[in-house]
Design a protein that fits this description.
- This protein has helices at 2-27, 31-45, 48-75, 77-85, 91-116, 120-145, 150-169, 181-219, 222-238, 241-257, 261-288, 290-297, 306-331, 335-388, 394-416, 421-445, 447-457.
- The chain is built from 17 helices and no strands.
- It is mostly helical and 458 residues long.
Length: 458
């Protein structure tokens, strides 16, 4: 897509996607969060009737919220075009994209059920197959229609995602239980109220992301939006695969032990250590080979975004522990505390992003990412410490210090050393980081034994 559409096309695609995601988040009442929590809690009871009833409630609610989101997109199509692009040129595009809001919500309902029941294999397959089919059928549109193929491509992807989600969702067999209107109202109200409160943080994140894209579009143009989208995709999507994988399993597990502060403290520390050990060598590798990564994943037209990514990758070292600790508030159902914490953090993130881009362009956005997550880590740690007696264990502090020091060496080589010395210095540092991570992971997960058993099975 980057090769076929270029930075401007990726910029337009990003504005469409961020608008649709924001509308979806405002109208889905956080069912993706509260639904998982309620299904996971029901699953812990091993009560088949209770599990079936909660699943029926989720299925009913996703239809309601899906149609509501589609209606809002349809009704506000002209206004959305004005906000995102500064004209009504894309009104019809948003009319068509209202269907994707409905389909995405219906698909998410099936994903919620699979995640809540911890059917992670089916969930992984559903996501991979849906994305692959969407890619397969949308790329020809981009090839022949270029920018005009963006909207049809988004719709086709949503259709295949929905079809695949339904296919895997039907593999979940539950008891047939009646659901009265009174029961739907009673169960659904609590789920939607709590979900909406918890989803406000996601809405704020999307709102901040949407605002900065519009600001970049107004100040620097749609090509700058495309470069920003490429950088954010590398940071939040490619590297963020780890966060997606963690959330899928970590959130239900943390919810199950959330009432016991000692067990929750232990689980958070374990998750943080493993996440950092997996991510650190990847970040070091990305830092050293970032220009090649951009060219391979995008094209040489996007190379200018590397100045943003350098700083942002350092920020990821602070995002990992902050993100893991922040889940304590959600797992404990402290929606108000979570809301105010996220509101404050998104306000200073938006402010720093606006100031950073206005004065220093893409470099300023990278620096603002780093500073924001340093502040956010301090913020969530202090709250968790005061409220629930949380503390980081010595193992985490040691792992963080060593891996961050190695990343700083890579960062210094990139900033102040010319090729080929960047690689002469950087490659050994990557190998040291990977060796240290493997050694520490082996202590926790017995990797050598797992690899031996895997080879025996083969």
């Amino acid at each position: 897509m980057a090769v076929l559409l270029g930075p401007a096309g990726i910029g337009i695609l990003g504005l469409f996607n961020s608008t649709i995601l924001l509308i979806s988040s405002l109208t889905n009442f956080g069912l993706g969060i509260s639904g998982v929590k309620d299904i996971a809690a029901a699953n812990e009871t091993q009560d088949e009737l209770r599990i079936a009833k909660v699943i029926r409630v989720v299925n009913r609610l996703v239809w309601f919220t899906g149609f509501f989101g589609a209606f809002v997109t349809l009704a506000l199509s002209s206004w959305l075009s004005e906000i995102a692009f500064g004209s009504d040129e894309y009104t019809i595009a948003f009319v068509w994209l209202s269907t994707t809001v409905l389909l995405k919500q219906l698909a998410s309902g099936q994903f919620v059920i699979l995640q809540g029941l911890r059917r992670l294999k089916e969930l992984a397959k559903a996501n991979v197959v849906g994305s692959a089919l969407g890619l397969l059928f949308s790329v020809p549109l981009y090839y022949y229609l270029r920018i005009d193929g963006i909207v049809p491509g988004l719709i086709i992807t949503a259709v295949f995602t929905y079809m695949v989600a339904i296919y895997f969702g039907k593999k979940v067999k539950t008891e047939k239980v009646p659901l009265t209107s009174k029961e739907l109202k009673l169960e659904g109200k609590g789920m939607m109220v709590m979900g909406f409160m918890l989803s406000l943080s996601g809405i704020m994140v999307l709102g901040e992301s949407y605002a900065i894209r519009i600001f970049i579009n107004n100040v620097g143009g749609v090509e700058q939006v495309g470069l920003y989208n490429a950088g954010i995709a590398l940071i939040s999507t490619y590297v963020g695969l780890l966060f997606t994988a963690m959330e899928t399993d970590y959130y239900p597990r943390l919810s199950a032990v959330a009432d016991d502060n000692t067990k929750a403290n232990l689980l958070v520390n374990q998750q943080t250590e493993i996440a950092l050990l997996i991510l650190a060598p990847v970040l070091a590798g990305f830092l050293v080979f970032i220009d090649w990564v951009i060219i391979i994943l995008y094209s040489s037209e996007f190379i200018a975004v590397n100045v943003m990514i350098f700083w942002a990758f350092l920020g990821m070292f602070f995002k990992v522990p902050a993100w893991v600790v922040g889940f304590i508030f959600i797992a404990k159902g402290k929606s108000k505390l979570f809301f105010w914490s996220e509101l404050v953090s998104n306000l200073y993130l938006l402010g720093l992003n606006l100031v950073g881009y206005y004065y220093w362009g893409l470099t300023g956005l990278g620096i603002s990412f780093l500073v924001s997550y340093i502040l956010y880590l301090i913020q969530v740690y202090v709250i968790a410490r005061v409220k629930y007696g949380f503390t980081f264990h010595g193992d985490f502090v040691r792992i963080f210090s060593i891996q961050f020091a190695l990343a700083l060496i890579c960062f210094g080589a990139i900033k102040y050393v010319d090729a080929p010395w960047i690689y002469i210095i950087g490659v050994p540092i990557i190998l040291i980081s990977a060796w240290y991570s493997f050694k520490e992971l082996d202590k926790r997960m017995h990797l050598k034994e797992l690899l031996k058993n895997y080879k025996k099975k083969k």
